[in-house]
Design goal:
With 370 residues, this protein is α/β, with parallel strands linked by helices. The protein folds into 2 domains: 121 residues, NAD(P)-binding Rossmann-like Domain (Rossmann fold), CATH 3.40.50.720; 190 residues, 2-Layer Sandwich (Dihydrodipicolinate Reductase, domain 2). It contains 13 helices and 15 strands. It binds nicotinamide-adenine-dinucleotide (NAD). Nicotinamide-adenine-dinucleotide binds next to loops.
Length: 370
């Protein structure tokens, strides 16, 4: 879209995550929430009021057909992401979809093909890519300060057994399948630190089943699942996802190793993200990442940083929304466009096959070939 002077947004799943994400829209003078959609009537009405929307819909496709929306946020349960994204793309409505992009390789292929046929923008809302720390590490990589990055680790440790019971789709799509079912928060930032690279093959193993749901059924997802990713460049990435083990949350653990530097995110409250860079550090001493933020912080964080502080997920929700809206306005590619979304989503889906076949190494398809 060119010469866009106003952007009308529709929000699916507005009563919950869709609504909390859409709230960040208010920082943009050219964009507004025009319509909300949710199957929960009370939540829908509350979201309409809170977001200042003009219209509210129960039915998603009715919103697409009747409402004057240019773009949608899809914040509904995981199995709805692809069908709702395709329905919008077919109507040339831009899409910001929650993570992961899809729940099967086949439906991901359909999504990519629908996007190719459409002239609308698609972005996946992988907000961890947009945190201040992760964006700063990316700038350090782009400035060459890590040399060649060749190893990384990401962990998402988020015990959600109670949440499984109130949002029952999680019991099917996150803890009801073995392997990495929610891996994009860990893999997303890592891929953004390895520009031009992608996961070529994965092998996945689990730690066994030590917890049962309130009905006494063991979760199909093993407590800790680890996916090893062999990169096209020859590098290696390790992703651990654990949504079941009793322990404090730690959803943003990262490490990056390059030929000239390494990074370790803070693991516990009160700790600091730390970095060692051959060209900047004194000997083997760590530096605080914070000390480099001012110099390397990307432009959007500089512009919206203060407002971002009040938004969700450490400000990353707001930076993600700004990137999406600016991409539509400028006709540019968002940071997490379709192929990046697939690069972040497909390894987890293949890992589910790998773990069911004795952790066999399996190739990850490249959406650029679809
Ligand atoms: N990026 C993040 O940090 C982050 C955080 C939380 C959730 N999520 C993702 O957001 C999505 C939603 O998660 P949640 O925790 O809000 O789930 P939830 O179950 O709490 O909320 C889903 C909402 O969607 C509505 N809904 C269900 N079917 C619908 C339909 N057909 N049309 C319109 N609305 C419908 C429900 O009524 C509910 O209000 C999931 O995909 C999840 O993975 C991402």
């Amino acid at each position: 879209m060119s010469a866009l002077d106003s952007l009308n947004l529709g929000v699916a799943g507005a009563a919950r995550r869709g609504g909390s994400l859409a709230r960040a829209m208010e920082v943009l003078d050219f964009a507004r929430v025009h319509a909300v959609c949710d199957t929960n009537p009370d939540g829908r009405d509350a979201a309409k009021t809170e977001l200042g929307a003009s219209e509210a819909y129960r039915d998603y496709e009715e919103m697409l057909d009747k409402s004057d929306v240019d773009a949608v946020i899809i914040g509904t349960p995981m199995p709805l992401h692809v069908p709702q994204a395709i329905a919008a793309l077919e109507r040339r409505i831009h899409v910001l979809s929650e993570v992961p992009a899809g729940v099967s390789i086949d439906e991901c292929r359909e999504l990519v093909q629908a996007w190719r046929r459409s002239r609308a923008t698609y972005s996946m809302g992988e907000n961890y890519v947009y945190t201040r720390s992760n964006q700063t590490v990316k700038q350090l990589v782009l400035a060459g300060l890590f040399g060649a990055p060749y190893y990384a680790e990401g962990e998402y440790l988020h015990e959600l057994k109670d949440l499984n019971e109130t949002t029952r789709w999680r019991r099917t799509w996150q803890t009801g399948i073995d392997g990495i079912t929610y891996g994009t928060h860990s893999l997303g930032p890592i891929l953004s630190w390895m520009p031009g690279d992608r996961v070529a093959s994965v092998a996945c193993a689990g730690s066994g089943h030590h917890y049962a749901d309130p009905r006494g059924d063991l979760y199909e997802n093993e407590d800790s699942c680890v996916m090893l990713c062999k990169m096209r460049s020859g590098g290696l990435v390790k992703v651990r996802v654990d949504m079941l083990s009793d322990r404090p949350h730690a959803t943003g653990n990262f490490q990056l190793q390059g030929t000239d530097g390494c990074y370790e995110s803070a693991r516990a409250h009160g700790e600091k993200d730390r970095v060692w860079l051959r060209s900047r550090s004194k000997g083997a001493a760590w530096m605080d990442l914070d000390d480099l933020v001012e110099e390397f912080m990307p432009e959007t964080w500089r512009k919206y940083g203060e407002k971002a502080a009040a938004a969700g997920h450490g400000g990353s929700d707001l930076i993600e929304i700004v990137d999406f809206a600016n991409a539509i306005r400028d006709g540019s590619e968002p940071e997490v466009g379709m192929h990046e979304a697939m690069d972040m989503t497909l390894p987890g889906l293949v890992s589910q096959q790998s773990i069911s076949e004795e952790s066999r190494w399996m190739d990850v398809p490249d959406s650029r070939d679809w």
